[in-house]
Design brief:
The protein is of the alpha+beta class. It is built from 19 helices and 16 strands. Strands 1, 2, 4, 5, 6, 7 and 8 form a 7-stranded antiparallel sheet that branches. A 6-stranded mixed sheet has the order 9-13-14-3-15-16. It starts with a strand and ends in an 18-residue tail after the last helix.
């Protein structure tokens, strides 16, 4: 759960700390006091897009830091993501503390932090999917979207594995179909291309070059062209090493004299043994070198016909490089690819038959996966409709009914990546009313309650860490508002719930009531965010009820609301961890 949020330089907020508690925390205040900036701050540490226009006028940057307390279950869920991002945690009792932060510069650049480490904003977004679920009025409107309705049903029905299996089969079917259409539609074009390729293949095959041959031919041609000079140089080198019939000294002869002299000297000084060994090694090396030179000289080819043959071969290879190169490796690569393309064209009939069989198998698999997904959705639709209808009765819609309609198409070509089904939430707001889709006729208040009912159902047994609702009570009031407050309080028994509200009926059910006020200078500072209790809380409820903080009748009404909420919570006491007290959000940067 989130324990606190510190905001600096964001909108109207100069510097303030917002404390949160387990259970239900409500945030109230006058219009324009800065409640929206609290939600904006939560959005920033959740990885949402950073808008430089949010930076407070006169500030160089806006900073938002949040402190999260992770229990064992949440920690297990996030373990791999935290490890991949290199995020450090702080131990606190049986829990671990995670610090998230975001900085937005007035110039436009933003930075994200997790556990004291700079990270991409996407890391915050990935973590927030487990830590936080935010709902605003835009989410109520998204409830009208059939795609959103289908996603809600899939989440409730646990259709994830079936949806993944369908998506994989559907992707294979589409891929096989695309390959088959491409092969059939472009067959004539590929045959024309193959005819042109065959000419090039034959031209290269006539030469049949091998990798590295051009470099070898160049070296061979150079040796043949200079064979006379080469033989003369080799003869001179051999004579220098071994000697000839003349009296000129040779390296081998001189070395032999040196060895004999050292052999005589070592008889007088044994320390020359190592020198003698080195001279012997040199003699062996000179003899070997002379033998190699002699062998190479015998292999020198001075045949003009051979030179002509090599040059002709070089010209043929160079011509291939000019047409299909520029390098010989490129020629060989083109040759291999051209052969493959021609082979595929020649085997087009066999490939078409194979793809048709593959497409048929993929189609059968896709239909089976779609049927399994539809079955899961239909079973879940009945349960979701019943569960949400029950919740709506607790939200002052006693005769309302929600049906989840699943319409399935049979034509495989009409399938989408999400399956064969269209999901529609149908609402009958009162007895005798015909069920109508939420996007046709549901009021704002009805949408608010349907969304809350769905979230309560989806929450289950604390499957979501923290819910944040932005004016979920929009469009409602009176008894309905009391029921919404009661339901939020019940949801808070299994999850942490944060609500920004204008309704005292909702605020009365809070476990912690935070009031945001704006000073006379237009700023929200640390002293402008306060947790209220006792008389201060009554005074805030009176302001929300009538706008008259000193109203006696308002105070009586506020006290009555608090007694109602207290009695309701006492009937089914919540089981939740103790609230964290003290401290501020600590940003390690």
């Amino acid at each position: 759960m989130i324990t606190e949020l510190r905001i600096r330089g964001l909108g109207v907020i100069a510097d303030a700390v917002v404390p949160f508690a387990p259970g239900l925390t409500v945030v109230t205040g006058e219009t324009g006091a800065g409640k929206t900036m609290v939600l904006t701050g939560l959005g920033l540490v959740s990885g949402e897009r950073a808008d430089p226009g949010l930076v407070r006028t006169g500030s160089e940057r806006a900073d938002v830091d949040a402190e999260w307390r992770l229990g064992p279950a949440t920690l297990r869920t996030l373990a791999s993501r935290l490890e991949d991002a290199g995020v450090d945690l702080e131990a606190e009792g049986d829990d671990q503390v995670l610090l998230l932060g975001r900085t937005v510069a007035a110039g436009g650049r933003s930075r994200a932090f997790a556990g004291g480490r700079s990270v991409p904003a996407t890391v915050l977004a990935e973590l927030s999917t487990t830590l936080l679920t935010v709902h605003g009025q835009a989410d109520q409107l998204s409830l009208r979207d059939p795609r959103r309705q289908r996603d809600l049903l899939d989440a409730f029905a646990g259709a994830g594995p079936d949806k993944d299996r369908f998506a994989e089969a559907f992707a294979r079917w589409r891929s096989a179909g695309a390959a088959l259409r491409d092969l059939v539609d472009h067959r004539a074009e590929r045959e024309r291309e193959a005819a042109l390729l065959r000419h090039g293949i034959a031209e290269i095959a006539a030469v049949a070059p091998v990798e590295g041959e051009d470099d070898e031919l160049k070296a061979r041609a150079n040796a043949l062209a200079h064979s006379t000079d080469l033989m003369a140089e080799l003869a001179g080198a051999h004579a220098s090493l071994i000697g000839d019939d003349g009296d000129a000294p040779s390296a081998v002869g001189l070395l032999a004299l040196a060895r004999r002299a050292v052999d005589h000297a070592r008889a007088l000084d044994p320390r020359l043994d190592a020198v003698a060994e080195r001279l012997a090694s040199l003699a062996d090396g000179l003899a070997a070198a002379a033998a190699e030179i002699a062998d190479h000289a015998r292999d020198v080819d001075a045949d003009p016909a051979e030179l002509a043959r090599v040059e002709e071969r070089r010209h043929a290879v160079a011509e291939l490089k000019r047409r299909y190169g520029p390098e010989l490796a490129d020629v060989l690569a083109w040759w291999a690819q051209a052969n493959q393309t021609v082979s595929q064209t020649d085997d087009a009939d066999a490939r078409i038959d194979a793809l048709r069989h593959e497409l048929a198998a993929a189609a059968e698999e896709t239909r089976a996966a779609a049927a399994a997904l539809t079955s899961v959705r239909r079973e879940g639709a009945a349960r979701l409709g019943t569960a949400v209808t029950a919740e709506l009765r607790d939200l002052a819609m006693p005769d309302a009914r929600l049906d989840v309609d699943v319409v399935t198409v049979a034509d495989l070509d009409a399938f989408t990546a999400d399956g064969a089904d269209t999901v529609t939430l149908l609402l009958s707001p009162h007895s005798g009313a015909d069920p109508r889709p939420l996007d046709r006729g549901a009021s704002g208040g009805e949408l608010s309650r349907v969304m809350l009912a769905v979230e309560v159902v989806l929450a289950g047994d604390a499957s979501v860490g923290t819910f944040v609702f932005d004016e979920v009570d929009a469009g409602i009031g009176g008894k309905v508002a009391v029921e919404v407050g009661r339901r939020l309080a019940r949801l808070a028994r299994s999850s942490q719930v944060v609500v920004v509200t204008h309704l005292p009926q909702v605020a009365a059910f809070a476990d912690r009531h935070v009031v945001v006020t704006k000073g006379a200078d237009g700023q929200v500072t640390a002293t402008s965010v306060n947790v209220v209790d006792g008389p201060d809380r009554v005074r805030e409820l009176v302001r929300m009820l009538s706008g008259l903080e000193d109203s006696q009748s308002g105070a009586e009404h506020a006290a009555e609301l608090l007694e109602l909420a207290s009695a309701d919570k006492a009937q089914t006491p919540a089981r939740r961890p103790a609230a964290r007290r003290g401290g501020t959000a600590r940003a390690k940067r």
